[in-house]
Amino acid sequence: MSVNWASDAMKMKLKIVYDNEAKQGFEKGWGFSCLIELEDEKMLFDTGWDGNVLLSNLKKLGVRPEEIKRAVISHAHWDHLGGLTHIRRRDLQVYVPQSFSRRLREELASRFELHEVTDAQRIREGVWSTGELGKGVKEQSLVLGASRGLVVIVGCSHPGVQNIFAVASKFGKISGVVGGMH
User: What residues pair up with 83 in beta bridges, in sequence order?
Assistant: First the structure.
């Protein structure tokens, strides 16, 4: 599935790379991953559970793993970060909630350029993290700016959609949401 969002500052395309349901010709698997194609870079939000499925679907979309500059991981469940290790790029910028276990953060830092997120922050022009939200499972969501309003990409919405939107709306008016809602 592909969605186009245009803004004055940047054009973007969102493509669901990994999900429990798949378009014909693509592999499905437990988890979620969304490819964000900006004019000047490609980034992933989550990476699904199985890295082989992730790489296969990226290939079918015509995307090589080395083209991906950043990966934002919503939370520390393997169905959202399991595919990350298949992207073998040392300079990949990986954004994770600071609440990830120390062991997992150390492992990721040994493979990637790790950024620990606590509060809402700008990741790049027109792209923000909500910061880690929630009391039980801590989760971050991604907020993308577009001329029609903000698009919020969520992993599982463990903190609750209302809580996610309360933070995301500080960046502007929300016009769309993509991702998991359980």
Answer: none
